[in-house]
Structure formats: C-alpha cells, structure tokens
Amino acid sequence: MYDYSKLTIIIPTLNEAKNIKILIGKLLQMYKGVHIIVADDGSKDATKAEALSFSGANDVFFLDRSKEKVHGLTASVLDAVEMVKTRDVIVMDADLQHPPEKVAKLAEALESCNLAIGVRQEVKDWGIYRKIVSKSVSTFCNTVFAIRGKKTSSDIMSGFFAIKSDLFKSIISKHKDSYIGTGYKVLLETLKFINSNEKVVEVPYTGFHERVYGKSKAGAKQLKDIIRATLR
Ligand SMILES: Nc1nc2c(ncn2[C@@H]2O[C@H](COP(=O)(O)OP(=O)(O)OP(=O)(O)O)[C@@H](O)[C@H]2O)c(=O)[nH]1
Ligand SMILES: [Mg+2]
What we know:
The chain is an alpha/beta fold. It contains eight helices and seven strands, in the order E-H-E-H-E-H-E-H-E-H-E-H-H-E-H.
C-alpha cells in the first residue's frame, strides 16, 4: 500500500474558489496523510479562504504569490517544488479536469520510476478546432524533442504528472532560468532535462472534460509560449 505521507500534491490556482473547495475535500478524504500546496497567483475570488479553511489539522499550505514579479502556472509550480519536503510530488490543475481518483495510480507508479505522466485518452467536450490545434502542437513538440534526442510523451502537454522531488529539485536548481515562468507547460519544459534513458511510466485516464466552474486561462499567448519552450 502506498503511504500518502510521502506525497505532496501541488495545485496551481488562479480564481478557482469553487473548484478548489471540491478538489481539496476529495483529496483529503481519499488520501490520508497527503500534503497539499496551493500555489496561488493572487486570486481575486475566495480561493485563499477556501484553501485556508482546510489548514489547521490538515497539511494544506497556501503559497501566496500575489506579490511576486512573475506570475504564471510554471513559476508557481517551480516555487512550490522548492518547499516540498516529501519524496514524491504530483502536479495537478485545480479545475477538476484531472480526476482525483487517478492520483493513486500516478503516486504508485513512483515506486518503480522517477516520472509518471497522466495521459488523456479522449477529450469529449473539445471542439474540432481545439482538437486539431492540440494534436498539431503536440506532434510538433514531440518531433522536435525526438530529433534532439529528448524524451517524448503520448501527452506532452499534460499538466497532470508525478515526479520524485529530488529529481525535480535538481532540474530546477540547474535550469530554473530556462523555464518560461509565465507559461503553462511545466511538464513539457521539464522533459527537456530528463535523461533519454530514464524510465517514464504513462498512466492513461479518461474523463477529461471542459471545466464546470471558473474560466479557462488558455489562449494564443500560451500557444506561443509552448513553441518557444520547445525550440529553446
Ligand atoms: N498559479 C497560477 N495558476 C494558474 C494561472 N493561470 C491558470 N492557473 C491554474 O492552472 C490550472 C490550469 O489552468 P486552465 O485555465 O485550466 O488551463 P487549461 O487547463 O490549459 O485550459 P482548459 O482546458 O481550457 O481548462 C488551473 O488550476 C488554473 O487555476 C496563473 O497565472 N498562476
Ligand atoms: Mg483546465
């Protein structure tokens, strides 16, 4: 049985009050002993109050980045990783697009590898345009990585992954400046620094759907950042 006190779940947030309440509630109920860091970039809604309502007896930490110079999912995750004290880390979105039930499989995978990636099997609610853009950009990133002898992934844009904290911290300490802090694809950027002979486990999951509460922050700027990060 996996011991969840070995695990810290990092959740980057921006205005996710409704979602974070549901997500943390589920995670604490399902994974006794787990540590959670909510890496928040200055939410204007009740995200902070909702996250803090779980602190106290539970190990839920609210990382307040509202006064930082650089805001973005990537910068927030990198800062949170530096605070981690456990062996294992999982990064997942707050918007309930990453099923809390799959945390178990990702965490267990770290018993036999240093990196495990949640791989979306189908995205039901996406329109044809978003599907084509996503597929084309992923193919482009994987092709560039393959040519350069880097690790590729069936879901290179995944934001749901598990990694040993030692590995993540050592990559960050050497390469922090090369990450696009304002970007969203922290796994894609991390893959560039993973040895090509490293064992990476892929954990498939279904049920990825459009968010129910809150707004998506994805857009043209993110697309530009992905291309920049890939070519860098
Ligand atoms: N810390 C931090 N988190 C962010 C920022 N922008 C978005 N997030 C969080 O990062 C996660 C992913 O953001 P989303 O807007 O859902 O992006 P996405 O999943 O690529 O897009 P959708 O599929 O449309 O939801 C969510 O938990 C957001 O709250 C930011 O600037 N800083
Ligand atoms: Mg999302």
